[in-house]
Protein 1
Amino acid sequence: MISLFRFKDFLYSSDKIFFAKRMLVRVSLRCLKLADTLTFGKAGRFSTMASMERNHNFFFRQLFDLESSTYTYLLGDTTNKEAVLIDPVYEHAERDANLIKELGFKLVYAMNTHMHADHITGTGKLKSLLPGTKSVIGKGSGALADIYLKDGDVVRFGSHQLWAAATPGHTNGCFTYISHEQCMAFTGDALLIRGCGRTDFQEGSSETLYKSVHDRIFTLPDHFTLYPAHDYKGLTSTSVGEEKKYNPRLTKPIEEFVKIMDSLNLPYPKKIDESIPANKVCGVF
């Protein structure tokens, strides 16, 4: 892949222009291939996506917690067997650890998109089940972890990497993890499918959230697939283009968005009094 900083150096001769165009076509075809690997269960319901593109040794699986409607994501390099787990849930730590062992992966990082209020993270428990695992979270989260991310940091596993983009607003420590190679991003609670995270507790700010989504997520290419931390209607993923067109909140001007968020009148989160203290110490309590 040609870096953005070097790409302009290829635009000054006809043979290099041809090379650059060929590279862009390859990238576009790679992203199109990703859509062909989805598998469906009964009634067309998405079940798993085991590998986004085996030729590029990238493994991906989406897992689910029924109680909190939380998605957990396992990403791995099938060549050197390094893997990362995004937003694990405490009650499913054994499930996730067993799956990782069965697949022959070594979990290098257990990551959170933010400090959750609706469930206890499984990162601390996974560290004991899979020695050598390191916990990862945004520096502004207020939670304990082995590694604190700053905006622009890169998390590497095998030959793959996730770019950490700060997307505060739901909480101060929210991050979106972006794979440019695989044309996908993990948005946490910042951007949900046809929705977004609430902003009425935990340092929430509607104005900040709006700017985070529009500046850091909606600026990604429209075909990028987005995977949220939760969904409550049985949907599994969306895209940048879909949310820019159909999101009922974030398609509005910022002033209207703030009014919408201020009038939601959502109930107090059921597990927040249990989850926040536990998540401050990596789910080990």
Note: DSSP finds eight helices and 13 strands in the chain.
Protein 2
Amino acid sequence: FRPVVLSLNQITRSYALKSDLKIKWVRPEKIPCYKPEKSGDLQAMPKLAGTELMKGFRESKELETANEHVRNLFSIEHNRRREMVEIFKDDMVRRVYRHELDYGSVEAKLGLMTARIRSLQEYMEQFPRQSVVKVQLKELIDKRKRFLRYLRRWDYRRFEYILEKLDLVYKPYPTKFHWITRKDSLRKLTDIHCEQIKQSRLEEYRQHLEAQQIEFLEKKLSNLELIRKEQIECQVPVTVEAEQIKAVRKQVEELKRKREAIAESRREQEDA
């Protein structure tokens, strides 16, 4: 039998070892698409007092002089939730309609859809397992987004007016969809971590060089003075100008002055 020789890669699985980097990835919380955070609704459905009359009995003269118990029978508080939703729809349409009988323009349709979406969102908060209502709400949000995309393309002023009046934020579809995976997220976190290490080491190296800067310049100044003196004594062409020596000496004095100011400010902070 031939002896079987295992390679080093087969013995040690270095690619599967746990990383020593202090990087922790937590999967982001999934937010359903029908939530206001995703749909773009900045306000929820308002809470009415309950004493308002139903939509068809607001202008009734008989109820103005009727008994209190009779008025309660026609108030929102003692009727179905649908009556309150109808009042909310009228209020949203009145914010953006073109005239009093307008229920067919794009603005009025967007107001009706927004009122319906917010009422269904409130309903889903109470009954989150209603799958039929959930599907209806998703379809309404997508339909409103298509209407807003149309307005944004062909009439941007009206688009901004609608967003302001209905308290909406337009969130377009992403141009490129990608799944949130642990592998890709760890790659990004590793790149960020490596960049932070790189910047911190560069900063340490810069501070180390700045600490040696005065000593280096003083040595440079003494060498320049010595070279100039020897060139003058040997009567050879002088390559080191006096202005160059003055510039180096001025630079050394400025650095010393800055170091003293920084040290003094640190002492004041420690005393305070």
Note: The chain is about 65% helix and 0% strand.
Protein 3
Amino acid sequence: MAFPKTLFVSVLLIVVSSCLFVEIDGRSRSRSLLSEQREFDYFALSLQWPGTICQHTRHCCAGNGCCRSDNGPTEFTIHGLWPDYNDGTWPACCTETRFDEKLISSLRKDLDKYWPSLSCGKPSTCSGGRGLFWAHEWEKHGTCSSPVVHDEYQYFTTTLSVYFKYNVTAILAAEGYVPSNSEKYPLGGIVSAVQNAFGATPQVVCSHGAIEELRLCFYKDFKPRDCIMNEKHRSCPKYVSMPERRPMGHESSLPWSLDSEVFSS
């Protein structure tokens, strides 16, 4: 029996419509998931210790803070301000708002000094490409900071403000915990120094016995709260080091090339 032409066209239209519906629904469902992602519970300000991270630098480039001969980082620098959940997970890439470097041009001097990239590698962005360290932090974490932080400029100014107010480097130096390539310090003493100063327990992450990151946690009004301890905190031994950063200079590690480091935070 011949298949009626009108019926064939109708079936074809139904199939095409179904495919378009699935595709459109897939995109709308993805956006819906972003919009329905539950609001975060607290902030974690993650700080990097350059002396530890820069030990892994094998190649230099102009954008790597580890490679600066002069004015290189000698204190904790910012990794990022992260909205987190109390269950140990976190939201990410909450909107499609892309990073715009022009919006933070007035902050460039402070960002270069206190929030430098410590790698030549370009981290991934939520839009699927690769870009500046700041782009990664804004798109992955900053876009999830609502309703406390509403835009890119506010995300960076807020992070800098909290960083300056809670000066971990100064607190530890006052207790005798200073950069050294020979001394080891009690982890409990470092944690207690921060607790006594800010009234909350930090999270410390180590690499090969050296402090790599120290995280301060805050309620949404930026009053300090205890951080949630996890396996990374237990990566630290009882006595830890805070190595000095060794100035490399661009000329010390030629040829320049991209580090293979993968940014995951």
Note: Confidence is low (pLDDT under 50) at residues 3-35, 250-262.
